[in-house]
Amino acid sequence: MSAVVLTAFVVYATVAAFWNADYYYRPYISPFYSPCLVAGCHLSAESYTSGRVNVPHLTVLGYWWVISPAILILVFPLGFRLTCYYYRRTYYRAFWRSPPACAVAEPHGSYSGETRFPLILQNVHRYFFYAGLVFNAILTYDAVVAFRNHAGQWGHVGLGTFVLVVNALLLWMYSLGCHSCRHIVGGRLKHFSRHPVRFRMWGLVSKLNARHMQFAWASLIWVALTDLYVRLAASGTIHGGWV
Fold first, then answer.
1. Which of 51, 149, 177, 189 has the fewest CB atoms within 10 Å of its CB?
2. What residues does each domain of the chain span?
3. Residue 203 has pLDDT above 90, yes or no
4. Sequence-distant (≥ 6) Cβ neighbours of residue 100 within 8 angstroms
């Protein structure tokens, strides 16, 4: 089952990243394309009136970049997930059968763990963790902006608002429950009594860490559903859902 879900997500994310269209429906933006790097994503007259925008040129790199901006953005959140301790265990077992389970003999003739290339690159996980926090902050901003309507007026709530808010919350819970986060917060402390604030933070992170697996799957599936919702709304397949 793990292999099926991971494969399905990779296929969907790849198609969505290269689709390069229908990723913005004012004020909703797909998490695969946030932050908005295209010209006029939030300012064009078309997006202001209809809520839709599909502009293929990046303002940060100029007009020579013709590939989807999601290719640049997804490097960081996907890098964080690929190097995540939980996901590493999952796809090692699901795809490589290494090891197939606890207390089961290694099926391969030799085992070097993550001490050689390319698996030694998994050690960059904590750096992707820092980058992931930046993107979480950006997606939180997107969730706040989702409380505006097409005309920019605050106080409106739609189905998309709920979708983006839940997406941001799940990503924060997944990220803050990360093993690296737990180590950064209190892993090096020898005397918790001397650091009461960090001890309390460590306790909160530890509670999230106990449910890291659940948050990992929930956030993975929901971020794909969030992209799908924005895509359907931007393409006109469904209504934006304002109330």
1. 189
2. 2-102+116-234
3. no
4. 93, 107
